[in-house]
């Protein structure tokens, strides 16, 4: 198969790869880190990239394997890390190194210990370095993204969370943009409202109402960091009818206004 001819085509290559993708996680062993890649880890900043690209990184950090598969099957042309070489194959190699470096840092934020995250990135870079076509690099890129996302997903919930609690949380996180009633959650879980509320609180130490509020604010914080949406747009998208109420609740949790929080990451 021919190599890609320009950087936008790498997204199209990923799309073709995704159709027949079969995920096989890499075996994680300890390997030394190269100084160049260490320096990249220290210097890369996710905010140097497009909004679409940053949203992809957000999904990885959240361990959202379902949405990651969807995004990579229908990639936005802006899901790239910038042009670093006129040579298509070299561009693909450089893009892979930047991407795995960024993702390894997000994996650490997502709960994976730093040694494992960086060792995994080293191993993927070593495997990529043996490849000779852009198609092959696209394949290992997809595998690498899904591997990291899957590992983060496994750390998404504490081990003591019951299936009922996990099911409830999954539903909440999937419906943050809509009104969520406890009766609705109870019907989804096929239990009574009182039973669900009691068990959820016993298992998590927090009420369902408070969990929903915190989840909405956490999503808002991510949108403030990774998108250029206005604060009003963000407040509405995470289920707050009033921007002022959103701002007051956000400041109570984060001890800073939404505007000041965004400025920290610009």
Automatic annotation (TrEMBL):
Keywords, alphabetical: DNA-binding, Transcription, Transcription regulation
InterPro entries: HTH_AraC (IPR018060), HTH_AraC-typ_CS (IPR018062)
Domain HTH araC/xylS-type: 166-264
Keyword Nucleus attributed: no
Recorded superkingdom: Bacteria
Ribonucleoprotein is among the record's keywords: no
Classification via Pfam families: HTH_18
Full protein name: AraC family transcriptional regulator
Organism: Enterococcus alishanensis
């Amino acid at each position: 198969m021919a190599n890609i001819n320009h950087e936008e085509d790498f997204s199209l290559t990923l799309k073709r790869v995704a159709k027949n993708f079969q995920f096989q996680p890499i075996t994680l062993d300890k390997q030394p880190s190269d100084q160049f890649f260490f320096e990249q880890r220290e210097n890369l900043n996710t905010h140097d990239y497009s909004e679409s690209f940053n949203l992809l990184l957000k999904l990885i950090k959240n361990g959202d394997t379902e949405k990651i598969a969807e995004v990579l099957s229908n990639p936005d042309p802006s899901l790239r890390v910038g042009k670093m070489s006129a040579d298509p194959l070299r561009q693909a190699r450089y893009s892979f190194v930047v991407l795995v470096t960024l993702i390894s840092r997000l994996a650490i934020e997502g709960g994976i210990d730093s040694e494992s995250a960086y060792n995994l990135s080293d191993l993927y870079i070593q495997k990529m370095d043996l490849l000779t076509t852009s198609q092959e690099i696209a394949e290992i890129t997809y595998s690498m993204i899904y591997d990291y996302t899957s590992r983060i997903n496994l750390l998404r919930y504490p081990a003591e969370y019951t299936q009922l609690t996990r099911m409830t949380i999954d539903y909440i996180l999937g419906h943050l943009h809509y009104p969520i009633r406890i009766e609705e959650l109870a019907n989804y879980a096929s239990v009574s409202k009182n039973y669900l509320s009691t068990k959820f609180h016993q298992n998590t130490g927090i009420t369902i109402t408070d969990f929903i509020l915190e989840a909405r604010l956490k999503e808002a914080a991510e949108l403030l960091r990774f998108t250029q949406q206005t604060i009003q747009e963000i407040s509405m998208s995470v289920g707050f009818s009033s921007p002022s109420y959103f701002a007051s609740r956000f400041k109570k949790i984060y001890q800073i206004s939404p505007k000041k929080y965004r400025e920290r990451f610009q």
